[in-house]
Specification:
The protein is of the alpha+beta class and 126 residues long. The protein has a domain at 7-93. It has helices at 30-43, 61-65, 71-86; strands at residues 7-9, 11-12, 17-18, 20-21, 24-25, 27-29, 92-103, 106-115, 118-125. Strand 4 and strand 5 (24-25) form a beta hairpin. It is globular. The two termini are 30 Å apart.
C-alpha cells in the first residue's frame, strides 16, 4: 500500500465534465480515484488528445484493431496494452480474467482489477 495519499479531480464520464462543487473541483481518492483512473485509461487513445501528447499516457487499441493480422495477435496486444497502462498506477496490483469481443468498430472488454482496496469487475465498450 502506498504511504501517501493520492487524489485527482473527479470526472463525470456521463456528463463529459469534471465534478465541480461550489466552484471547486471534487477530488477522488481511494477506490473512487482508481475507478476514475481506469475510465480515463480506457477512454484515452494514445496521442489523440493534445493534453496527453508525448506523455505516453493512453492505450492504442484503435491502431491495433485496424491491423490486418490474426485475431489472436490483436487480442494479445490489446490485453497487453491495456494491462500495462493500468499497472502504471501503483494502487493497481494486477488485472485478471481479461476477455474481449469485437463487434464492428466496438470492443467489449471485461476484467477483474485487483487493487490495494480489493477486487472490482470492469466491463466497458471501447
Amino acid at each position: 500500500m502506498a504511504d501517501y495519499i493520492t487524489a485527482e479531480p473527479l470526472f463525470d464520464w456521463e456528463k463529459g465534465d469534471f465534478v465541480i462543487i461550489n466552484g471547486v473541483p471534487r477530488l477522488a481518492v481511494g477506490k473512487e480515484r482508481i475507478r476514475n483512473y481506469t475510465q480515463k485509461v480506457l477512454r484515452t487513445q494514445l496521442d489523440r488528445y493534445k493534453l496527453y501528447r508525448g506523455t505516453g499516457f493512453g492505450i492504442s487499441t484503435d491502431k491495433i484493431i485496424g491491423k490486418s493480422v490474426a485475431q489472436d495477435y490483436k487480442q494479445s496486444e490489446i490485453r497487453r496494452n491495456i494491462t500495462e497502462e493500468l499497472l502504471k498506477d501503483d494502487s493497481i496490483i494486477s488485472i485478471e480474467n481479461f476477455s474481449m469481443k469485437q463487434e464492428g468498430t466496438h470492443l467489449n472488454i471485461s476484467f477483474t482489477e485487483i487493487t490495494e482496496y480489493g477486487a472490482e469487475n470492469i466491463e466497458e465498450e471501447i
